[in-house]
């Protein structure tokens, strides 16, 4: 028995990187898989049908069931066609995992409108599109599961990725509200901030020898399979009723993220003006201030807790 027996899974960006592993692992766990991939380059250029078709061929050669789709998640009409293809081909749809995307990194003072818009369109609008195209189906059948893909570039921050970070922080907020709105109809949504060595991470520019060395050292354990395994687990009925959470997965580590909540609240009779804020409020919150560490420095939180078994 597989964790996803009887389920139909749509994986966007399923031709390469993390999406490829999500598609293959989902099939290994018994799912019928729609493998979507436009086949664009790391900056979104071009289109190539071969990555998605190669993953479909891999799944079929192992005895699984899969079909390819070559549309863009940035086009709502195209995403509607993906959903219909799943229903027409396999009789339904139960899970959507949406890691499709690319990078257009630039410091904000040099970023063009095209570099901003392209990232927001694919990552944030792309997540909206897959939800908008499928939520009616999921609500009607009283079952549906989204695995959305964020990034520590948004949750923590990373220099040179304001467009990507803003989109990925937005994905986490989108997922939380989809989970809240979907709860009464058994529609779940969780978010993963992955750490994996892929063609996208390789493209992030750096001249810092320490970061380059760390990237190479991480490659050995940071296979795309690591976050893909978490995505499959979150896709499974066995993980219900878990919803609205943000997880990290990279190397041998799994994490669960805190979500923004007030740390401490201060009240002042008559309210606050600028002078009393400077004099009374700011000194009291000093211990709570988050330092300006980016993703490469922060490591995402506390040291990992070993788990045996």
The rounded distance between the terminal residues' Cα atoms is 21 Å
What percentage of the residues does DSSP assign to strands (E)?
Answer: 5-15%
Report the structural category. Answer: alpha/beta
Instruction: Kindly give the count of domains.
Output: 1
Mean pLDDT: 90
Strand order of the largest sheet: 3-2-1-4-5-6-7-8
Instruction: Describe the main β-sheet briefly.
Output: 8 strands, mixed
What's the CATH first level? Alpha Beta
CATH superfamily grouping: NAD(P)-binding Rossmann-like Domain
CATH topology: Rossmann fold
Name the helix and strand elements from N-terminus to C-terminus, one letter apiece: EHEHEHEHEHHEHHHEEHH
Strand tally is 8
What oligomeric state is this? single chain
Protein name: NAD(P)-dependent dehydrogenase (Short-subunit alcohol dehydrogenase family)
Domain Ketoreductase: 7-203
InterPro entries: KR_dom, NAD(P)-bd_dom_sf, Peroxisomal_Beta-Oxidation, Sc_DH/Rdtase_CS, SDR_fam
Pfam families: adh_short
């Amino acid at each position: 028995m597989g964790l996803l027996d009887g389920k139909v899974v749509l994986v966007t960006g399923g031709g390469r990187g993390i999406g490829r592993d999500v598609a293959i692992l989902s099939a290994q766990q018994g799912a019928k898989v729609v493998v979507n991939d436009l086949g664009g380059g790391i900056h979104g250029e071009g289109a190539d049908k071969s990555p998605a078709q190669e993953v479909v061929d891999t799944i079929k050669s192992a005895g699984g069931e899969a079909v390819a789709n070559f549309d863009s998640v940035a086009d709502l009409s195209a995403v509607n066609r993906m959903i219909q293809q799943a229903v027409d081909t396999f009789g339904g749809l139960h899970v959507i995992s949406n890691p499709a995307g690319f990078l257009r990194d630039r410091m904000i003072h040099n970023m063009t409108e095209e570099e901003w818009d392209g990232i927001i369109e694919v990552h944030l609008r792309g997540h909206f599109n897959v939800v908008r195209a499928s939520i009616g189906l999921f609500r009607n059948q009283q079952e549906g599961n989204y695995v959305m893909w964020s990034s520590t570039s948004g949750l923590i921050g990373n220099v040179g990725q304001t467009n990507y970070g803003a989109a990925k922080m937005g994905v986490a907020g989108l997922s939380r509200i989809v989970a809240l709105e979907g709860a009464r109809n058994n529609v779940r949504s969780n978010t993963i901030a992955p750490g994996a060595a892929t063609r996208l991470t390789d493209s992030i520019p750096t001249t810092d020898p320490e970061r380059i060395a760390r990237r190479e050292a991480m490659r050995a354990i940071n296979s795309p399979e690591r976050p893909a395994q978490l995505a499959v687990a979150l896709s499974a009925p066995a993980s219900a009723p878990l919803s609205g959470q943000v997880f990290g997965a990279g190397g041998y580590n799994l994490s669960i993220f805190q979500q923004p909540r007030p740390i401490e609240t201060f009240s002042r009779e008559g309210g606050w003006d600028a002078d009393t804020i400077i004099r009374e409020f700011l000194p009291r919150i000093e211990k709570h201030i988050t330092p300006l560490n980016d993703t490469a420095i922060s490591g995402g939180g506390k040291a990992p807790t070993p788990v045996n078994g």
